Amino acid sequence: MTSGPLAGIRVLEVGTMLAGPYATMMLADLGAEVIKIEPETGDISRQVSDAYFVSLNRGKSSVCLDLTVAEGQARLGELVADAHALLVNLKPSAIHRLGLTYEKLRRFNERIVCVAITGYGLYAGDDPAFDYVIQAATGVAALTGDPDGPPTLPGYSSADNSTGLTAALGLLAQIVSGRGGQIDVSLHDVMLSQLNYHASAYLNTGTEPVRRAWGAHSYYVPAQMFPTADGHIALFITHDGFWRSFATEAGIDGFWRMAERAERRDEVLAAVTAALATDSADHWEKRLKPLGVPVAAVRSLPEALAETPEVVVEAGGFRTVRCPIRVSDFEPDYRPAPALGEMQHTSTS
């Protein structure tokens, strides 16, 4: 075992709920010392459930500060002086009012990296910007669901999680640069960025994205969900080699070239749907995976966790999902989430 890749890095967090705490938990998993700065009442996510809080805050320490008074601001300055970065996710007005920007904190530490996670940008106002609101505002919801039904949302917080990871990347990039500075990451910009090829098609050719049945891909055919004789399956055919393997196993003749499959989308989908209706999702997965075809039967979360027990770790008596970043010769120390105001020892192994 070696020390974590972020051993020796100290990160302060003024975060609530999901995006900010998720970002800093990833850093803590990789060996950073993360100090969570909370009001006397604690991060509001403590009120959701213990399991919820642990899932976003394991491995951190907690310090209670009232940042609205001089004493709290003085203690913040002391913490900033010895830290590499501060990550905040609050409303822009609160970030500015509490002095949680590089402009205000550089007097304590010229090399401090200040990361602000907001809905629309650090200087874009305080419009409420929760995950689902952002998905509606950026076109994600409009692209999701059945084309004959209403727009819909995925069953998890995709905007918050994506923004947390993006903020962590920006934080580390600025630390590596050796310079302090302000990093501004918004949920709005992150989700538009993740609509990359849809946005590019519209901006360069005027092609507007459309919602397709079964979540079908805009370019690849067949690449979507399909019903089977029992259950549903995701099939993702991105090149002709995959198609040859699938078509041979499924008894489909023709459509050998990618361009032809795109041009004759409806015919291809009709043939694939008819073939997949002859067997169950589980059996199709067993038949196609050995051929190298990208395929998966739809599973519930409990089923997925049961199949991969190695992803489940324990942190302070709570079971949670391990860090997805696996580093050679290093295993994170999955310490519990802190009690309010609790400083924890940071292990480097």
List the helices and strands and how they pair.
Layout: E1 10-14, H1 19-29, E2 33-38, H2 50-57, E3 61-64, H3 70-81, E4 85-88, H4 92-97, H5 102-105, E5 113-118, H6 131-137, H7 158-177, E6 181-186, H8 187-194, H9 196-205, E7 223-227, E8 232-236, H10 240-250, H11 258-263, H12 265-276, H13 281-288, E9 295-297, H14 301-307, E10 312-315, E11 318-321
Parallel strand pairs: 1-2, 1-4, 2-3, 4-5, 5-6
Antiparallel strand pairs: 7-8, 8-9, 10-11
**Could you estimate the helical fraction of the residues in percent?**
25-40%
The major beta sheet can be summarized as: 6 strands, parallel
- Mean pLDDT across every amino acid position: 96
Radius of gyration: 24 Å
DSSP summary: helix tally:
14
Q: In terms of structural class, how would the helical and strand content be classed?
A: alpha/beta
Q: Give the CA-based shape.
A: elongated
Number of strands: 11
CATH topology of the largest domain: Rossmann fold
Q: What is the CATH top level name of the largest domain?
A: Alpha Beta
Q: How many structural domains can be distinguished in the coordinates?
A: 2
Strand portion, in percent?
5-15%
Summarize the helix and strand pattern as letters.
EHEHEHEHHEHHEHHEEHHHHEHEE
GO molecular function: CoA-transferase activity
Keywords: Transferase
InterPro entries: CoA-transferase_III_domain, CoA-Trfase_fam_III, CoA-Trfase_III_dom3_sf, CoA-Trfase_III_dom_1_sf
Pfam families: CoA_transf_3
